[in-house]
Write a structure and sequence with these properties.
Number of helices: 3
Strand content: 15-25%
Oligomer: single chain
Strand order of the largest sheet: 5-6-3-9-10
Order of helices and strands: HEEEEEEEEEEHH
Bound molecules: calcium ion
Number of strands: 10
Largest sheet: 5 strands, antiparallel
Distance between the termini: 67 Å
């Protein structure tokens, strides 16, 4: 091999290495975002949006996003979720689309303060400090104990029942609670 050819080959390999490093796609918490109120219900009528972007602020398609509710031990995640989503223990996972976004409508129950972590491909990109739910008794049903618990939370302004994350338990939350209750017959629970 001539010296010139060897140098050309080495230069080529160098370019390939640089290209390979530059194209490694890693979720970046700086550019990724989580938007919405972390409210969950057995009927899955509340949404929480996650957008995953890389270190170049470009959307990551098909990124595996997981919400981990383990920081709020009372939370129960339904074993069956909407198509495209899976659950395991206190986690739910789904994949982003071409724009890097995925919208969770988590089927589950239970509410409380604690750290809920959101991961993309294993990288933590966001966290929220409380999960809200009309299923305050965390039995994955909206039933009579929840009506009592909601009334108590409203009276005490306990934010477990702040279903729209407005910062107070008030009339709009009453409406949302009634909607969630109507979405369930007395024994409807996880899908
Ligand atoms: Ca509210």
């Amino acid at each position: 091999m001539s010296k010139f050819l060897r140098m050309a080959l080495l230069a080529g390999l160098g370019v390939m290495a640089v290209t390979s490093a530059a194209s490694a796609v890693v979720p970046d918490p700086t550019f990724s975002s989580c938007v919405g109120c972390m409210t969950i219900a057995p009927g899955g009528e509340y949404s929480f949006s996650v957008t995953v972007k890389d270190q170049f602020n470009l959307p990551i398609n098909n990124s595996n996003v997981t919400i981990d509710f383990a920081g709020v031990p009372v939370v129960v995640i339904c074993p069956t979720q909407d198509a495209g989503f899976t659950s395991a223990g206190q986690t739910i996972s789904g994949k982003t689309g071409i724009s890097g976004g995925v919208v969770f409508t988590t089927h589950g129950g239970g509410a409380g303060a604690g750290t809920i972590k959101i991961y993309a491909d294993g990288v933590q990109i966001c966290s929220v400090a409380r999960v809200h739910s009309p299923d305050l008794s965390h039995n994955t049903k909206i039933d009579l104990p929840d009506v009592g618990a909601f009334a108590a939370d409203q009276a005490g302004n306990i934010l477990d029942a702040d279903l729209n994350c407005s910062g107070s338990v008030d009339l709009p939350d009453v409406g949302l609670f009634a909607g969630s209750q109507a979405n369930h017959s007395s024994d409807v629970h996880c899908p």
